[in-house]
Design brief:
The protein is mainly β. It has helices spanning 2-19, 107-112; strands at residues 22-35, 41-61, 64-73, 82-91, 96-102, 131-141, 144-151, 171-180, 183-192, 203-214, 219-229, 234-245, 250-262, 274-286, 291-300, 312-322.
Length: 323
């Protein structure tokens, strides 16, 4: 038994050396309070984040490498563990090919550089969905890259599902990104499949623009997304953000978002027509490079409610440790 254990340890050591496996994660616990547009309040203490991330990379030679990432959410006590973003990427001197199951971030606030702990996705901005995807990224010049991606319908996950036999909408995405010095600029165009020309609930095309710049005293940015529906309606979402160091380990963040909808008066979702806005404010105090406390508050008029709905609000205090 002892010899077997020694042999297994030796094999594990060799595998770890060649695969460069690492384990990281995040633990966050705090107090969260919210009031919905209907006036319903809720608050309490508990886990915000309990996540483990495994990453491995192997050098294949000739300028090629492969990397894989697995994420697990351990969740509340006795709740069980659930999977999170998963990916494998093959990198070559010419391009990188990524296979992913992931929940894309909110593009509008992300492109603006919004740094608040809580976002406005699913609130003033569109909700996110989990997707299977393949992406090819090509470096074009110093700081400039082109990405072409295919994403299967949201929440239609698993090998053998999504591309055919589904009434959901897949997405073809073409994007460019330029990052140099303090500035990052992005643009993308998306074409949806299975477009229903009679419905405003069916997306057709999406145009995205965004950028941020570090001015030294603060980082400022903006993001814009214009969605054209199958029936010819338009949904425009935008965000402005700013973040800045204050004194010591204290920093402040803010993001403001707007959601403008213009559908036909006969549309089944015409009640969404009009303008909804929201904001999120944050303070962060760094106790070390990996431990920090945050205070967030926000208010928004939901993107999935009628235009005359009341504002929702929240505030939260959270202690975070990354490892």
């Amino acid at each position: 038994m002892k010899k077997t254990m020694i042999a297994l340890a030796a094999i594990a050591a060799v595998g770890a050396a060649s695969a460069q496996v690492s384990i990281t994660g995040e633990a966050a616990w705090g107090f969260h309070a919210s009031t919905s547009g209907a006036g319903v309040s809720a608050s309490g203490l508990g886990i915000d984040t309990a996540q483990l991330k495994f990453s491995a990379k192997e050098d294949l030679g000739n300028g090629m490498s492969v990397s894989a990432g697995l994420s697990l959410n351990t969740g509340n006590h006795s709740a069980g563990t659930s999977s999170d973003d998963q990916s494998i990427t093959l990198s070559t001197p010419m391009a990188a090919v990524s296979l992913l199951t992931y929940k894309p971030g909110d593009w509008v606030s992300g492109a603006s550089g919004a740094a608040t702990w809580y976002g406005l996705d699913g609130k003033a901005l569109s909700a996110r969905s989990t997707r299977d995807a393949i992406a090819v990224t090509l470096p074009l010049a110093t700081g400039l890259s082109l990405t072409a991606a295919y994403l299967e319908p949201g929440n239609s996950l698993g090998e053998g599902a999504g591309s055919s036999g589904s009434t959901g909408q897949s997405v073809y995405n073409l994007g460019v990104k330029y990052a140099t010095g303090p500035a990052t600029l992005q643009a993308a165009f998306l074409q949806y499949t299975n477009v229903d020309g009679t419905l405003d609930t069916s997306a057709n095309t999406v145009t995205r623009l965004g950028g941020k710049v570090d001015l030294g005293v603060a980082t400022v940015g903006a993001g814009l997304q214009i969605i054209k529906t199958g029936a010819g309606g338009t949904n425009t979402q935008s965000a402005l953000s700013v973040s800045a160091p204050l004194v010591g380990g204290l920093s402040a963040q803010a993001v403001y978002a707007a959601n403008n909808t213009d559908y036909a008066s006969t549309s089944s979702v015409a009640a969404l027509n009009g303008r909804r806005t929201g904001y999120m404010l944050g303070l962060q105090y760094n106790l070390s490079k990996r431990t920090y406390a945050i205070l967030n508050s926000g208010s928004w008029r939901g993107a999935s409610t009628t235009i005359d709905a009341q504002d929702s609000s929240m505030y939260a205090m959270t202690l975070v440790h990354d490892f």
